[in-house]
Amino acid sequence: MRSLLAVLAFAVPAPVAAGESLAQLFDAIAKHPPQEAAFTEKKFIALLDKPVESSGVLIYTPPDRMEKRTLEPRRESLILDRTTVVTERAGKRRALALADYPEMESIFAGLRDTLRGDLGALTRRYSAGLQGDMGQWRLTLRPLPGASGEKVERIELAGSQWHVRRVEVVLGSGERSVMEITPLAGEARDPR
Amino acid sequence: MSARRAAIAVWLAGLALCALQLARTTFVADLSVFLPSAPTAPQRFLVEQLREGAFSRLMLVGIEGSDAATRARVSLAMGAALSRDPRFASVTNGTAGSGRRGEALVFEHRYALSPAVTPGRFSVDGLRASIGESIERLASPAGLALKDLLARDPTGETLAVIDALQNEEGPKRTEGVWSSADSRRAILLARPHAPASDLDGQSDAMGAIRDAFTAASASLSRDARPRLLLTGPGVFAVESRAMIVHDVERLAAASAIVVAILLLVAYRSPLALLLGLVPVVSGAVAGVAAVSLAFGSVHGVTLGFGTTLIGEAVDYAIYYFVQSGEAPQDWRARSWPTVRLGVLTSIAGFAALLFAGLPGLAQLGVYSIAGLAVAAAVTRFVLPSLVPAQLALRDLSAWGTTLGLIAKRLGGARWALAIVAALCIGVLFAHRATLWDTDIASLNPVPAEDRRIDVELRDALGASDARLVIAASGPDAQAALQAAERIDASLDREVAAGRLAGYESPALFLPSEATQRARLASLPPAAELRSRLAEALRGAPLRAERLEPFVQDVEKARTGPLLTAADVGDSALGSALDGMLLRTASGWTAVIGVRPLAGHALDSRALAAAVGAAGVRDAMLIDVKGEVNRLYAGYFGRALVASALGVAAIVALLAVALRSVRALARVMASLAAAVLLAAAWHAGTGTALTLLHLVGLLLVVAIGSNYALFFERLRETRAESPRTLASLALANATAIASFGILALSAIPVLHAIGLTVAIGTAAALVFAAMLSS
């Protein structure tokens, strides 16, 4: 499946039309900022024979705050903003400088800029490739050479319309995390 | 004639010896000499901390003005530049790198550092549980960041250590760097290697911080450039020193010039002026040499105080020149006994300073006693030989006659003295509640604004919560660490019971060798560990053979060396440990800081019980604020007692010398009234009296006693002595001039003495005149 995706990603050229649809997609996402969403995540780690599964809630607060609240197997939360990571586990809060964790920063920036519909910011860090149409799209982000977080091989986002349904992060080691996202009630609200 | 030659030879030899001593004297300006030599163990600990402690060497750097992004960029650039600077043990601003430094060391020594390492942890069940936990942690939101640890640290010891070391959220971050709670200031914390008492080292470090700021903000336009704030005990000490040195130089020069002009006008003879300085300079040189011999170094404030010696020592030469007139031989017989008694009185007064319990005051005492004794002796034994026979001085008899008339008038108004004294007592009584200022901060020359900024920066960093600390001592570092570990175990129970948020102990950064050995002894040999892993991981998603890096690391730790203070050394752990494990005069002390639950005050009684339960001998729970208050109140009381004893010694001395109750009463009455007036002046103008005002009052007694004794002699001999009156007026004028100039100093210590003495000596002369006729 991975190699298939890679072939698809490489197979798609970047014609003018694609640039236009990228702008169109980001415009749609920007106009419909997501609210809360449920997620289930599978992490495929080389050392382990089977994926590690977890589930919880994602909360995005525009323009640049994101909370990932894991409910299963254990309540934990991770709050990211432009510069800081705050973790909460077993009642203990800890704040860390995001810049100390380049791959986390890099992944977060990719998601944040996409959810904000900020193509300019996104393409300073990643090259972005789009396949499909608005009904069924797949966005592939590859870190630009020299960008921080070289451990990230690529980020694949998939969705329909302005909804992001799936986020896959692939690391250089081949390890990856796949997150399926279901918008929670209220997501259909139109901010206009 | 040969006796004169001998006197000059002794004087010159003495000067030469003093010069030798001065050549090897160091001059300091560290205000902690005005801290008491503390009586109790907790207080000794505190004072030691203030002088050498890590807390004292911290420098707080604030960046304000401009905008948040600019402040953050400047903070980042400064942090990067200063982290490379060998003068600093650490520079942190909450940004990239600063939080992760030391992680490599923690990872390397995780089995010696982790409190979770026990034999049970490495049993089959223990391994199954801890590895299961680590796999589960991968499911956490930050899981991907942890996966790299799994192969080498599947039991999660690195995280266990980090959890124990830093369970605080830390200061607020704005634009990725530490900031004040309102985000208006970016904040850095710098810890130079130089202790707070090494002012040159601290000054050097301050220069490095300023240079880094200049470099970081150089590219900004003038309007966009933020401002640098720099505070901390060491910074204040350096700035105080600069202020003291500046004031001492300026005031000494001004004082010398004014006194010289006064004397030139009076004598109309430059030669007499120069000769008059001989006793003063000899006294000053002897005073500094005596302090240097007794204390090993001389404080800047003592030197500043030296200008005041001009005020009194110059009097002796004035008495000699003005009073001797045409018959110098007679002076020795007529006036010297009075001057000698005045000197002895002054010495009795200053001796009180020796027992006040403050090294700084003791220096002033030694300086004054040695200086005055030498100045008087030089006036008596050396000066007459130096004065040429044909030295023509202006005859001040005419002035003296006028002064005599004024003195008579004053004598008629002696009832006024009673009224003034009564008024002064009334003023003092009205202000009795606020009469004394026992806060050591009032001696601090640092402007209140700077101190306020310091408090704000400290609050932002959460560095001001150290109200209660626990100190555990031992003959060596290992003993102190073991004591700390016993207390830590007791505190762990408090944390578990929800009575305490946490604590910071040196044993977390550097466990005692005994504890490290016990932990490493829990690690099974490689073959054994492999077989246990195989059993523990049966059915788990992680296969035992993939954990070979873990087995290798455990084997390396098991057979490798222990973690030593040298390993911790310059790392981030070392700089944290720096203030927590201290070498003291009698051994080593471990300092444990405790954190209250959010929104709760620390329950000192419960904490004391917890410390007591640890069963560590000599463990102290120190209530920093309470102890500091007790300390100040204690030394102030002691200085008052010492002053009272000094006054008693003066009374006894005068009683013996004057042999008359009435004469003693007259002398003491004028001195008491002068002291009351000087004290009431301060109280009436809203200045609470500090320790240094007390010193000033002692000086009033010392100088004023000369005036009173001369008037007493005049009264006794019933002689018209215009020359004596003129000499007293001139001596008083020089005292008021030199102390008045001291009162202009911005340094509270010098200002207090100057103003008190200028007012007091003027009053002493007038009151003595009132009571004489």
**Assembly status:** heterodimer
Protein structure class of chain B: alpha+beta
Count the E strands of chain B. Answer: 13
Helical segment count of chain A: 4
Features:
A: 192 residues; alpha+beta; 4 helices; 24% helix; globular; disordered N terminus; disordered C terminus; B: alpha+beta; elongated
Element layout with pairings:
The complex is a heterodimer of chains A (192) and B (773).
Chain A: H1 2-11, H2 16-31, E1 36-44, E2 52-61, E3 65-72, E4 76-80, E5 84-89, E6 92-97, H3 102-115, H4 119-125, E7 126-133, E8 136-143, E9 152-160, E10 163-171, E11 176-183
Antiparallel strand pairs in A: 1-2, 1-11, 2-3, 3-4, 4-5, 5-6, 7-8, 8-9, 9-10, 10-11
Helix pairs in contact in A: 3-4
Chain B: H1 2-23, E1 26-28, H2 41-52, H3 54-57, E2 59-64, H4 68-83, E3 88-92, H5 103-108, H6 110-113, H7 124-137, H8 143-146, H9 157-165, E4 173-174, E5 177-178, E6 185-192, H10 199-217, E7 227-231, H11 233-267, H12 270-295, E8 297-299, H13 300-324, H14 328-334, H15 336-354, H16 359-381, H17 383-386, H18 397-412, H19 414-430, H20 448-461, E9 468-474, H21 477-496, E10 502-504, H22 506-509, H23 513-521, H24 526-536, H25 548-559, H26 565-568, H27 572-577, E11 581-584, E12 587-595, H28 604-613, E13 620-623, H29 624-658, H30 661-684, H31 691-717, H32 722-742, H33 748-772
Parallel strand pairs in B: 1-8
Antiparallel strand pairs in B: 2-6, 2-7, 3-6, 4-5, 9-12, 9-13, 10-12, 11-12
Helix pairs in contact in B: 1-12, 4-10, 7-24, 10-11, 11-13, 11-32, 12-13, 12-16, 13-14, 13-16, 13-32, 15-16, 15-29, 15-31, 18-32, 18-33, 19-30, 21-28, 29-30, 29-31, 30-31, 30-33, 31-33, 32-33
